[in-house]
Amino acid sequence: MDEVINVIELKDVVKDYGDFKLDKISFAVPEGSVCGFIGQNGAGKTTTINLILDVIKKDAGEVLLFGQPVDGKSASLREDVGVVFDEMGFHDFMTGKDINIMMKNIYKNWDEEVFFDYLKRFSLPSKKPCGKFSRGMRMKLQIAVALSHHAKMLIMDEPTSGLDPIVRNEMINIFREFVVEEDHTILLSSHITGDLEKIADEVVFIDGGRIVLSGNKDEILEKHGILKCKKDELSKISESLIVSFEESSFGAEVLVNDRHAAAKLYPDMLIEPALLEQIMIFYVNKKR
Amino acid sequence: MKGLIIKDIMCLKKQLRTFSFVLLGVFVLALMYVLSARFGNIAKAGADMLLDNDITAVDVKNIGSFVLLIFMIIPLSAVLDMTVIFNADGEAGFNRISSSIPLSIPKRLLARFLTIYALFGIGIVVDTVLAIMISSLTDMMTFGELMGTVVFFASILSIYGALVVFFNILLGYGKDQYCQVFAILVTVLAVVLLNLKKLIVVWKVAVLEKEIELNVWGWLDYIKTKAWVVLIAAVLVSAVSYGLSLYIAERKRGVI
User: Fold this and answer.
1) Is the dihedral of CA A63, A67, A72, A75 positive or negative?
2) Structural domain boundaries in chain B
3) In this complex, which of A90, A93, A102 lies closest to B6 when CB atoms are compared?
4) Helix count (H) and strand count (E) of chain A?
5) Mean pLDDT computed over every residue of chain B
6) Highest mean pLDDT: which of A73-82, A91-100, B129-138?
């Protein structure tokens, strides 16, 4: 069996801001996978990404990128990383041509032919200042930049938030194309779980600065389920199976962590597969 | 690194466009001035004052030199607009992008300093052409003296530039006005402290003896001939500013 290579690895990483703390988070992103990094706003996704990119300093633990420690001297590792942020970051006056001139003098592997091909494909005018672009166009411009230096990994922080479903779908198709290459990896942070359900292989779920759940997406979806029952039936359900529950005037909905076991134990109750969004909501509710 | 310098220059595109017209104006005015000082009304006024014994020949030459200094300093002043770059980066959120590119913090910081020197480079080229033109048309100042003043002013302004970079990294985005004020204050304070003795003498002469002229011409000679002293100071300040800025940037991460 081939050994799994992790392109990103975090081990017991701590970052304390006083009012917010990333508390000993550990997870790994295997090479060739799409890892969905989910969590509500303020859960710690951007802080974690900033730690991986070495934008901020960790207080404790270890962050490895392509097997190398990220410790303030790892700038060259970013040659193989394409980054897409939730906001564009380029100056409003800059045109595609300006960005090309700048980037070809920054990245060793910058490929202007690929860049202009992407601009064409995304219908982005190369002479128009990007400040006049719509949000969707700005995100596409960032993606064009991220894909034009032959990066092996894309790290994206909420790239699809605020975009309409058609543009989101278009972007997901681009990400799919990127991971066709076996050694290409994506870490995609988002609170729009529907997008991740379409594309992710792995899922890391963070809440309140702690990793709540991580692993193979299909396994997570396969294991979890929504059990629907009457309120008075709640007490019959084994506590070890319950992640959390929600009561309404119609009854109760319970997220169970082993839906097949639950189906055997409670054949009279209705158990449906859970969506990532439901799993996220129930886990967040559990903490509250 | 070159990419970041290009980006910085792009940020100043508008200012540099306006500046090129200013430089054209400087050339025209300087030419008109030196021609007039040699053949026209200024030469005639100087000659009349000499005949009437109102001023000496040295005074005429020195007054002319002062006007020339103003022409020489303008091409170097593009650096005063450098806070535009910090502002533009802050407004666009470019700092996150610069943190994600494969350039270390020392290189990103160095790029900022090199942008300042690139602006001086433009100014020095323009000033050299200006100095050749002036020195070939008038004997008010030699080419060497003119270039001495260029080095003097470039050094003073590079001290200012290095301090602005330092304060910007220390205080962060949106504090550009404080950065400029602090940089000017520190530069002025340093000049005052280094010349305290001379200034006290000047003050005593000015207040007690009401005779300041000789000291003013002394400053002019200093500017023309002792520029290397300020140049050394500029190199030292830039090195210290780079070191301190790097220390702060490494601690903060991602502020450049």
Assistant:
1) negative
2) 2-252
3) A102
4) 9, 14
5) 82
6) A91-100
